[in-house]
């Protein structure tokens, strides 16, 4: 009787593990560093988690900035860093894509002056297939350390 119960429990656990949810397209760890100089763009960072199929991020917006652009820092000729705008970004299925200082990032132009360190704003991520994801982002001052993930 005990052996039968153990076997049934093992089969049940294995069945539940097989039913685990497929990865979903999502966003986490969003934050914004305010500009050190008033009038300059703020920078936004986050982590994209790919879902079961490839996705293409076509825009990120917030209602507290006039314009938001995706950019990427790259080593150019002679080792000098260059910054290029990205019109879209492929998010491979089940993979993680990070927007972090020194790499991919957002530039938030003409940020509303009501946005202050310690506050939050909301990003809306729009994908080519029409999916939209809203994600809150913490706001930090220009010289503050990045939030812990």
Quick rundown:
The protein contains one helix and ten strands, in the order H-E-E-E-E-E-E-E-E-E-E. The chain is mainly beta. The mean pLDDT is 89.
Proportion in β-strands = over 45%
Helix content: 10-25%
User: What's the gyration radius in Å?
Assistant: 20 Å
Contiguous helical run count: 1
Q: In this structure, how is the largest beta sheet organized?
A: 10 strands, mixed
Stretches where pLDDT is under 50 for at least 5 consecutive residues are none
Distance between the termini: 48 Å
List how many beta strands DSSP finds.
Answer: 10
What's the average pLDDT?
89
Morphology: globular
User: What structural class should be given to the helix and strand makeup?
Assistant: mainly beta
Task: Give the SSE string.
Answer: HEEEEEEEEEE
Which key features would you list for this structure?
about 150 residues; mainly beta; 10-stranded mixed β-sheet; about 50% strand; globular
């Amino acid at each position: 009787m005990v052996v039968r119960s153990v076997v049934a429990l093992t089969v049940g656990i294995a069945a539940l593990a097989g039913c685990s949810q497929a990865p979903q397209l999502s966003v986490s760890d969003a934050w914004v560093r305010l500009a050190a100089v008033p009038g300059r763009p703020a920078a936004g960072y986050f982590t994209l988690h790919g879902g079961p199929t490839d996705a293409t991020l076509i825009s990120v917006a917030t209602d507290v900035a006039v314009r938001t652009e995706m950019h990427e820092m790259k080593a150019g000729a002679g080792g000098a860093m260059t910054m290029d705008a990205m019109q879209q970004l492929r998010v491979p299925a089940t993979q993680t894509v990070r927007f972090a200082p020194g790499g991919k990032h957002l530039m938030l132009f003409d940020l509303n002056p009501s946005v202050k360190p310690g506050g939050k704003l909301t990003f809306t991520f729009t994908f080519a297939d029409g999916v939209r994801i809203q994600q809150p982002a913490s706001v930090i001052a220009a010289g503050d350390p990045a939030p812990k993930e």
